[in-house]
Write a structure and sequence with these properties.
InterPro entries: DUF5996. This is Ava_C0101 and related proteins. It comes from Kocuria sediminis. This protein is of the alpha+beta class. It folds into 2 domains: about 120 residues; about 160 residues, no CATH class. The protein is built from 7 helices and 11 strands. It has a 6-stranded antiparallel β-sheet with strand order 6-7-8-9-11-10. It is globular.
C-alpha cells in the first residue's frame, strides 16, 4: 500500500466544511460566468488548479481581473491588471458574509460585474440567495488544504491522461457546480439535444463525450471516488470490463458510471498507475461501444510525431 500517494480524505469529517466551500466556489464561479468570454461546452466557467489553490484566470475588461483562492493561507485574492489588489481571510465566514465581502472587493477594485442569479446552482438550498445564507459557515483549514492537495495530484494525473489522446479534449478543470475535477474527450459526432434540455446540459453534451474525473462524494455516494462516463451512453456499456478489479459500474441518474473508490486506490502499491489504468479502461469501453476510432486519436506518451 502507498498511503503517501493520496492523503486520507473521508467524507463525513469534512462534510460541513465541504458544503461551505462548495458555496464559496459557486459565488466566485457565478462571477466568472458573468465576466469570462464564452467558450464552447462552458469551458470558460470552471476553475483551474494552481500551486496554492484555485484560480479563475484573467477575465473581464476595463479592468481585466482574476480571483484566486489561496488554500494554504486560506484567503481570497482579487487582483486587477492595473495593480489593484483586495484580499480577505476565508475561515469564520458564512456564505452570506463571503458573498458580501466579495461584492465589496469587486466594487473597491473598480470591477463592474453582476451575478445574474445569486443563488446556489443544483444544491438543496438553491432557492435561498447567497446573501441570506448564514447557515453554512464551517471552515476547517486543514481539511481545505488537504482537499487542494488531492486536487493537485488528480490534476496532474488528468493532464497525463489527456496527453494520451490527440482528439478534441477539454482543459482539466474543477467544476464549481458539481465540485469535481475532470477532463473530457469529444467525438466529431453531433448529438440531437432534447427540446426540453436546459442550456447548461444542452451545450455540455452537444457532441458525443467520454468524461473522466474525480469527485469528493455527496450524500448519495458519501465517499471520494474516481469516475468515468460516456454520453450519450451506448448500449451494453455496463457489460464492458474495467480495470483494476476493484472498479465497477454503478447506476446513477438513469445511466451508468464507472467508479473506482479513492480508499481502494490508496491501498494499492501503484495508486497513480491504477487510476490511469481505470480511466483508460473506462474510455476504451465507451469508445468501443460508441464506434470511436482508436487508431486515429491514440497518442501514447503524449506524442503524435510518427518519427519518435
Amino acid at each position: 500500500m502507498n498511503h503517501a500517494a493520496f492523503p486520507e480524505m473521508p467524507y463525513e469529517p469534512w462534510r460541513e466544511t465541504r458544503e461551505t466551500v462548495h458555496r464559496f466556489l459557486q459565488v466566485v464561479g457565478k462571477v466568472r460566468l458573468a465576466a469570462a468570454p464564452r467558450r464552447n461546452h462552458w469551458w470558460n466557467v470552471p476553475f483551474h488548479v494552481t500551486g496554492r489553490g484555485l484560480t479563475t484566470r484573467p477575465m473581464g475588461r476595463d479592468p481585466v481581473f482574476a480571483i484566486d483562492l489561496d488554500l494554504l493561507d486560506h484567503r481570497l485574492d482579487l487582483s486587477t491588471a492595473t495593480g489593484v489588489r483586495h484580499s480577505f481571510a476565508l475561515p469564520g465566514l458564512s456564505v452570506a458574509a463571503f458573498h458580501a465581502r466579495l461584492l465589496h472587493a469587486l466594487e473597491a477594485a473598480g470591477v463592474d460585474v453582476t451575478i445574474a442569479d445569486p443563488r446556489p446552482f443544483d444544491l438543496p438550498d438553491s432557492g435561498r440567495p447567497f446573501a441570506e445564507d448564514t447557515e453554512h459557515a464551517a471552515y476547517d483549514p486543514a481539511a481545505v488544504t488537504r482537499y487542494w492537495q488531492v486536487l493537485g495530484q488528480v490534476n496532474l494525473l488528468l493532464e497525463r491522461f489527456a496527453g494520451e489522446w490527440s482528439g478534441k479534449t477539454s482543459p482539466v478543470h474543477h467544476f464549481w457546480h458539481t465540485f469535481d475535477i475532470a477532463v473530457t474527450r469529444f467525438a466529431d459526432t453531433a448529438v440531437d439535444v432534447p427540446p426540453g434540455a436546459d442550456p447548461v446540459t444542452g451545450e455540455a453534451y452537444s457532441r458525443e463525450v467520454i468524461s473522466s474525473g474525480f469527485w469528493f462524494g455527496d450524500d448519495a455516494f458519501p465517499e471520494p471516488a474516481f469516475y468515468s462516463y460516456t454520453a450519450p451512453e451506448p448500449d451494453g456499456l455496463a457489460a464492458e470490463p474495467l480495470r483494476p478489479d476493484t472498479a465497477r459500474w454503478t447506476e446513477r441518474g438513469g445511466s451508468h458510471l464507472a467508479v473506482l473508490r479513492y480508499d481502494d486506490v490508496r491501498e494499492l502499491a501503484d495508486p497513480h498507475g491504477a487510476v490511469l489504468e481505470f480511466w483508460d479502461s473506462a474510455y476504451r469501453a465507451g469508445a468501443r461501444r460508441s464506434g470511436w476510432d482508436f487508431t486515429r486519436y491514440d497518442c501514447p506518451g503524449g506524442i503524435t510525431d510518427p518519427r519518435v
